[in-house]
Design goal:
Number of helices of chain A: 25
Structural class of chain B: mainly beta
Strand content of chain A: 25-35%
Oligomer: heterodimer
Low-confidence stretches of chain B: none
Distance between the termini of chain B: 25 Å
CATH topology of the largest domain in chain A: FAD/NAD(P)-binding domain
Number of domains of chain B: 1
CATH class of the largest domain in chain A: Alpha Beta
CATH superfamily of chain B: Folate-binding superfamily
Number of helices of chain B: 1
CATH architecture of the largest domain in chain A: 3-Layer(bba) Sandwich
Radius of gyration of chain B: 14 Å
CATH superfamily of the largest domain in chain A: FAD/NAD(P)-binding domain
Order of helices and strands of chain B: EEEHEEE
Radius of gyration of chain A: 38 Å
CATH topology of chain B: Folate-binding fold
Number of strands of chain B: 6
Helix content of chain A: 10-25%
Strand content of chain B: 35-45%
Structural class of chain A: alpha+beta
Shape of chain A: elongated
Bound molecules: zinc ion
Largest interface: A-B, 27 and 27 residues
Largest sheet of chain A: 7 strands, mixed
CATH class of chain B: Alpha Beta
Mean pLDDT of chain A: 93
CATH architecture of chain B: 2-Layer Sandwich
Strand order of the largest sheet of chain B: 3-4-5-6
């Protein structure tokens, strides 16, 4: 195909005509130029039909040139990656793009669902609520699939996103959002006065309205002034300036969030260039120069392709060198559309202006008349025709009341440029908490009092002339920067010249021709027409928030940028109220669609969270450890030998602990150093059991409660010297226990002389457990005395290991004779390897968390699955640790009625009656597995294992009145796994109930 | 995301801190004989004011100090922050 850009101008625009770029739309190849958007490239080729509308599947085209466009959503493929709902007005043309229409089947030109358009009486306001109400069971099987298929927006890729996204944090004195005349001038004024400024522009080019308006600033035309100002800003070290950067969220304490497009517009990007970068910007002051968006007019069949906002038509002409049409009609209620008329006329295109006003005598209208452009005042477009593109319009002369036409005539055309005046873009100001006020001059909502340190300027603030915008910009930039920098450098406001515009007509919704019920669309993206809003009000919806939800007005991804005010105007007209009484709906972030990948940034896959590894991790890796996440830690779950699975390996490892000796990496257990002369008193208050008289060189098991009496954590604490303790916590609660201790030290009992610090990462820890562990210990520390008498259970010793000192605790989690050896982390690997070497003669084997669990479960030791935030000490058979003699954290709660109830759940053991069937964790315990539902629940299974001691399954469970149920038969039922197991209730202490082994 | 001035470290983003509840709640003294009602008040009952609220925050990803924040719950404005031992006026 040739380069048939038949709607391209001969010259002009900011595109690079030297660089031709091909693209594929709906399977056909076209060309555009570097600097085009997908939208401008399509229009250059005369293509207006982009997709089908959401509800009625009506043909739709581009209505705008920026983020406000409501129709131009496509499925875009780039390097074999397909992305849905892409806004073609925002994507810059590069090589290798292929995109297609959405919401149509089998093709955009012939769409089966367009029958909805003829069945539209079935699609009134609230049609989802009305049609798909009942029966409930139809939702999942019938209604939802139908709605999803019919709604059929784009298709999300199921593949992982191959792109890289980054996050950046930045602070500045002044963030300026939008680089129109007011934005640039405030950034200039502030930066020259020494402030650290960030200027953000969402489009590829800076300048906002200055790019398309014919104005002069200080003897330069608008474009030149922009180029010079931007160059100057870029040269200043205190300025960060970003184009293609959309500030989309305004949060508390002047935190704004912006995404920057870094990659998609570059043809051959460098490796590691992120696709987009998310900026978190904390600004002392925020200047919102977000401009304004042209408002459409509402008239019959106003949604045909080729009908576009008039300022957007001018933007396509001036920036992209594209005629949106060669026979356009301009339809307006104000003067700004005349600028488009003049621009087209100057490019050799004849236009006809339809103006709803009775007359206008402004400078620009007179200039238009002088150019010989035909104007029809007091006229409106009563209807349009043309299926895939507008072909003609029916023009009517409005009667005096403007509610009917006195005369209709048909005029041929190939495009209609519409202007209903301007809507200030107040989204960010509103997000910040600025209460909007209705302004009757602009007929729009304007910011009033700022809640945060934000200032709205330019047309976003209703200042519609260039002169006002520049003045506001320079003054605000100077004033805010002076407040921050105390500088006093004031930039002179340049003189400017612009076209003089008059008043607009307060009239947006055109009457229908007599006896016609054509659709007049208010919200294009969600297909909401005047009749829908009328129906909603007629059905009793009064609050604008309700009308919005019932009709879905303004609820599409464009967030009603072009439809909100027309909708409000309509509701107020119907209710005979003024707009401020109707109020406005709430603006919420994000201002425009943001890619999920951008929000997530680099926190994907293994970078989702930090990974903590013990100093022995490399050894585990080399020795076929299969790892498991334990909080942030990666811990060996088991060490695989040959073709073992988890079950076989963990059984082997656990059995070897019972028979010989095993070694387990317990570095991840929380370790807290406690020092200070009141440490003993402090521990005595924190733990439920007595700690005042713990001798030096002894460890003690302790339980901590929350103030509400629930068990919080358990662990051992060892007195290393008079005022020095070493506390261990569970892996899971390590951070919470530290915060808990700090709270009591700093807030509750500041008079105590105690300090705590986490030393989890300072110490590498290995547990050696099993009947042969003492023999092994004597090999590791050959010159030390390790007999049962000199190093008894719960004893603590410091032994020399190489050139460091090891802290050795005789404590046990496995129920076997066991020791925990701690050395400074740098010696961890050396210690581990040394123990394994020396242990070879005792058949030492490493064991992972699975075997560790097996060993603790069959011993009846509690862990996180029993300390589940619901259990109290008595439930867990820990009542002997509740001191009667002293007060402690949580004690006062223990006499609560519910906590002293004898029927409370208690920890017990369970053995399957057949001694074979595994009992799934989480199973409910019931008396009768066949009882009618709801079957009374007696308790649940908290932890299960295969007892290596007895070679049959064993579980811990928490059962109502469990201590009186020993010997009873219950059923463990797991509806999820469709399993029910007959079990016998036994003691929680299945192995060595007297605890002889640990003391041997 | 709030910006909170830690009395020890200065202004930092909220994600460095954890919230610790009403700072005016005082734990009853140990060994003090108090009624169930008083204890319940301490454990469970909290005011939920619209407006100024004195609350505890913990600089968990910073200096690990607990401190007091006077915050307006309707606007999130932070009036002032105090060390624990400071009078919070
Ligand atoms: Zn701090």
């Amino acid at each position: 195909m040739t380069n048939a850009q038949i709607f391209r101008t001969q010259e002009g625009g900011k595109i690079d005509r030297e660089e031709k770029i091909s693209f594929i739309f709906n399977g056909k190849k076209y060309y555009g130029y570097k600097g085009d958007t997908l939208a401008s490239a399509l229009l250059a080729n005369g293509i207006h039909l982009i997709g089908r509308s959401f509800k009625y599947h009506r043909p739709r085209g581009i209505i705008a040139a920026g983020v406000e466009d409501a129709n131009g959503k496509v499925q875009l493929s780039r390097n074999n990656i397909s992305e849905p709902n892409v806004n073609i007005t925002e994507v810059e043309l590069v090589e290798g793009l292929s995109f297609k229409s959405q919401n149509c089947w089998p093709s955009v030109t012939f769409d089966i669902w367009a029958i909805n358009n003829f069945l539209n009486r079935f699609f009134p306001a609230g049609f989802y609520y009305k049609t798909f109400m009942w029966p409930k069971s139809f939702w999942y099987n019938v209604y939802e699939p139908i709605i999803r298929k019919a709604a059929g927006m784009g298709t999300a890729s199921l593949k992982p996103d191959p792109d890289r996204y980054e996050h950046r944090y930045e602070h500045c004195d002044i963030l300026v959002v939008g680089s129109g005349p007011s934005g640039i001038s405030s950034a200039l004024a502030a930066a020259k006065n020494g402030a650290r400024v960030i200027l953000a522009e969402d489009k590829p080019r800076f300048g906002g309205s200055l790019q398309i308006d014919e104005v002069t600033i200080g003897n330069k035309n608008g474009n030149e002034w922009v180029d010079e100002a931007i160059a100057e800003l870029k040269s200043m070290p205190n300025v960060i300036i970003r184009n293609r950067s959309q500030v989309f969220g305004y949060y508390d304490h002047n935190m704004l969030v912006m995404f920057e497009r870094c990659k998609d517009h570059v043809n051959n990007s460098e490796a590691f260039t992120p696709r987009e970068r998310l900026w978190y910007i904390r600004a002392q002051e925020v200047v919102l120069s977000t401009g304004s968006i042209e408002r459409p007019l509402v008239f019959a069949n106003n949604d045909r392709p080729g009908i576009m906002l008039s300022s957007s038509a001018r933007e396509y002409l001036k920036i992209y060198g594209v005629f949106v049409g060669k026979k356009p009609i301009i339809f307006t209620n104000n003067d700004s559309a005349y600028e488009t008329a003049i621009e087209y006329k100057n490019n050799g295109i004849d236009v006809l202006i339809i103006d709803t006003r009775n007359n206008s005598d402004s400078g620009i209208v007179n200039e238009t008349k002088k150019l010989g452009i035909k104007i029809k005042f007091a006229h409106a477009i009563a209807n349009t025709s043309g299926y895939k593109k507008v072909k003609s319009v029916t023009i009517g002369k409005l009667n005096k009341e403007k509610n009917a036409y006195t005369k209709l005539e048909e005029v041929k055309c190939d495009s209609v440029f519409v202007s209903g005046n301007w809507t200030p873009t107040v989204h960010l100001a509103s997000q910040s908490g600025n209460k909007l006020n209705y302004d009757t001059n602009t007929d729009s909502f304007l910011p009033s009092i700022s809640r945060q340190d934000e200032t709205v300027i330019g047309s976003a603030n209703g200042s519609m002339t260039l002169k006002e915008s520049l003045k506001e910009g320079f003054e605000v930039g100077y004033k805010l920067s002076k407040k921050i920098t105390k500088g006093n450098i004031q930039t002179t406001i340049p003189l400017s010249d612009e076209k003089q515009l008059g008043d607009h007509d307060k009239f947006w919704c055109m009457p229908l021709p007599t006896n016609k019920n054509y659709k007049r669309f208010v919200d294009f993206q969600n297909d909401v027409a005047v009749s829908d809003i009328q129906l909603a009000v007629q059905e009793g919806f009064r609050s604008i928030e309700h009308v919005k939800r019932y009709t879905t007005l303004g609820m599409a991804t464009d967030q009603g940028k072009t439809s909100n005010l027309n909708g409000l105007q309509l509701v107020s007209d119907i209710e005979k109220k003024i707009v401020p009484e109707v109020g406005h709906t709430t603006f919420r972030p994000p201002y425009t669609s943001v890619t999920i990948g951008t929000i997530i940034g680099r926190e994907v896959g293994k970078n989702y969270k930090a990974t903590r590894k013990s100093p022995m991790h490399t050894w585990h890796e080399k020795n076929k450890a299969v790892f498991v996440d334990a909080g942030l830690w990666l811990r060996p779950r088991y060490y695989k030998q040959n073709n073992e699975d988890l079950f076989e390996a963990s059984k082997r490892e656990a059995l070897n602990v019972r028979n010989n000796v095993g070694i387990c990496d317990v570095t991840s257990l929380g370790k807290i150093e406690i020092k200070g002369k009141d440490s003993a008193e402090f521990l005595n208050r924190i733990y439920t059991n007595a700690f005042l008289k713990l001798p030096i060189g002894k460890a003690r098991y302790g339980v901590m409660l929350r103030e509400d009496g629930i068990v919080f954590d358990d662990g051992t604490t060892t007195r290393i010297s008079e005022n020095h303790y070493h506390m261990t916590t569970t892996t899971a609660q390590a951070a919470n226990v530290l915060s808990h201790l700090e709270y009591y030290i700093q807030v509750v009992w500041p008079e105590l002389d105690v300090v705590v610090v986490s030393v989890t990462e300072q110490w590498a820890a290995a547990a050696i457990a099993g009947p042969k562990s003492r023999l092994l210990l004597s090999k590791i520390f050959p010159s030390e005395e390790v007999s049962n008498e000199s190093f008894p259970f719960m004893g603590y010793k410091e032994f020399k290991f190489k050139e460091t000192t090891a802290r050795v605790f005789r404590i046990s989690f496995s129920g076997e004779l066991a020791y925990e050896i701690n050395v400074e982390s740098d010696f961890g690997l050396q210690m581990w390897e040394e123990i394994l070497n020396l242990g070879e003669e005792f058949k030492i084997q490493p064991y992972g968390t699975e075997a560790l669990s097996t060993l603790r479960i069959e011993m009846g030791h509690i862990a996180g699955s029993e300390i589940d935030g619901r259990t109290i000490a008595r439930d867990l058979s820990l009542e002997s640790l509740l001191s009667e003699k002293k007060d402690f954290v949580g004690k006062r709660s223990l006499n609560r009625k519910a906590f002293t109830d004898n029927n409370r759940e208690k920890i017990v053991g369970l053995v399957p009656i057949d001694k074979k069937t595994n009992i799934p964790e989480g199973s409910h315990l019931v008396l009768d597995k066949n009882a009618s539902l709801p079957n009374p629940k007696l308790g649940h299974v908290s932890a299960s294992c295969w007892s290596v001691e007895y070679n049959n399954p064993f579980s811990l469970a928490i059962v109502k009145n469990g201590h009186n149920k020993l010997g009873e038969k219950l059923y463990a039922v797991s509806p999820l796994k469709n399993v029910s197991v007959a079990v016998e209730v036994v003691s929680q202490h299945y192995v060595d109930p007297e605890g002889k082994r640990v003391r041997s | 995301m709030l910006e909170i001035k830690c009395p020890y470290c200065g202004r930092r983003s909220q994600n460095e801190f954890s919230y610790g509840g009403d700072a005016t709640v005082k734990r009853p003294k140990l060994n003090k004989d108090i009624s169930d009602g008083e204890w319940d008040e301490f454990i469970y009952y909290r005011k939920n004011p619209r407006g100024i609220h004195l609350e505890l925050w913990h600089h968990t990803s910073g200096c690990r100090q607990w401190f007091k924040v006077k915050r307006d719950t309707s606007t999130h404005e932070i009036v002032k922050t105090f060390m624990i031992e400071e009078e919070s006026q």
